[in-house]
Amino acid sequence: MINLYTWGTPNGRKISIMLEAIGEEYQTFTVDILKDQQFYPEFLQISPNNKIPAIVDPQGPNGEPISLFETGAILLYLGEKSGKFIPKKPSKRYEMLEWLMWQMGGFGPFLGQAHHFNRFAPNEVPYAKNRYNNEAQRLWSVLNKRLSCRDYVVDELSIADFAIYPWAARYEWQEIALNDYPSVKNWMERMQSLDAVQKGMAVPDTY
Ligand SMILES: N[C@@H](CCC(=O)N[C@@H](CS)C(=O)NCC(=O)O)C(=O)O
C-alpha cells in the first residue's frame, strides 16, 4: 500500500485524485503545514524541499521501496506504474508533458502567489495583488482557449487534468469569475462529475 503524506491544498489533492483514479490502495498521513510539520526530520527525509505532498511506495521499481516528492514526478510515476492517464501515442505524451509542465511552472506557482496576497499577506500589497491577479487572468485565458475545442487538456483524460483541476477549483481565491472562462467552467463540471475527483478532493478528511 502506498503512503501519501499530504495536506488539504491543491498540490496535495493532485495526488489523491490520481491515486483514486488508478484504484491504487493508499493510506493518508497528514502533514500540518500550518504547524510546521513539513520541517520534521522524518518528513524531510522523503521531501527535502519541506513541501507536501510526498509518497512512499514499498513496491517501487524492481519491487524495491521508493519515496518521491514534487507532484509532477509523483504523477508521472503513478501514471507509468499503472499504465493509466499518460497518453500512449508519443506525440500526445509530449503534449501532455507540455501542459503538466505549464501547470508546474505557471498555473500553480503564480496562482499560489495570488492566494497569498489575496488572502494571507499580513498587510495589503496592491502592487503584488495586481501583478498576480493579472497573471491569474492570463493563465486562465490560456487554459480557456486550450479547452475551447476539446473535452480534456490533451483530449483524453490525463495527469495534466489532475494537475490543473485542484488549482482551478480554488478560483475564488484568485479573484476569477468563472463565467468569464466558459470552456474552463464546462471542463470543471466534467472533472467534478468524476468519482476519483470527488474522492480525491476530500483528502485529507481531517483538514
Ligand atoms: N512544486 C511542489 C509544490 C508543493 C507545495 O508548494 N506544497 C506546499 C503546500 S501546497 C507546502 O508544502 N508548503 C509548505 C512550505 O512551503 O513550507 C510540488 O508540486 O510538489
Q: Any key phrases for this structure?
A:
single chain, 207 residues, alpha+beta, Glutaredoxin, Glutathione S-transferase Yfyf (Class Pi), Chain A, domain 2, 2 domains, 4-stranded mixed beta sheet, 9 helices, 9% strand, globular, binds glutathione
Folded structure, characterized:
The chain is an alpha+beta fold and 207 residues long. It has 2 domains: 2-85 and 197-201, Glutaredoxin (3-Layer(aba) Sandwich), CATH 3.40.30; 90-195, Glutathione S-transferase Yfyf (Class Pi), Chain A, domain 2, CATH 1.20.1050.10. Helix content is 52%, strand content 9%. The protein is built from 9 helices and 4 strands. It has helices at residues 10-22, 41-44, 71-82, 90-105, 109-120, 126-147, 159-168, 182-192, 195-201, and strands at 2-6, 26-30, 54-57, 66-69. Strands 2-1-3-4 form a 4-stranded mixed sheet, covered by helices on one side. A hairpin with an 8-residue loop joins strand 3 and strand 4. Helix 4 packs parallel to helix 7 (159-168). It is globular, with a radius of gyration of 17 Å. The two termini are 22 Å apart. Glutathione (GSH) binds at residues 9, 11, 33, 38, 50-52, 70-71. The site of glutathione has 9 residues, from loops.
Helix content: 40-55%
Q: How many helices? A: 9
Kindly identify the CATH topology of the largest domain.
Glutathione S-transferase Yfyf (Class Pi), Chain A, domain 2
CATH architecture of the largest domain: Up-down Bundle
Physical arrangement of strands within the biggest beta sheet: 2-1-3-4
Q: Please compute the radius of gyration using only Cα atoms.
A: 17 Å
What is the H/E string? EHEHEEHHHHHHH
Average pLDDT across residues? 97
Name the ligand types.
Answer: glutathione
Quaternary structure annotation: single chain
Largest sheet features: 4 strands, mixed
What is the number of independent domains? Answer: 2
Share of residues in strands: 5-15%
Which parts are unreliable, with pLDDT below 50 for 5 consecutive residues or more?
Answer: none
**N/C terminus separation:** 22 Å
CATH class of the largest domain: Mainly Alpha
Instruction: Please count the beta strands (DSSP E, at least 2 residues each).
Output: 4
What structural class do the secondary elements suggest?
Answer: alpha+beta
**Inertia-based shape:** globular
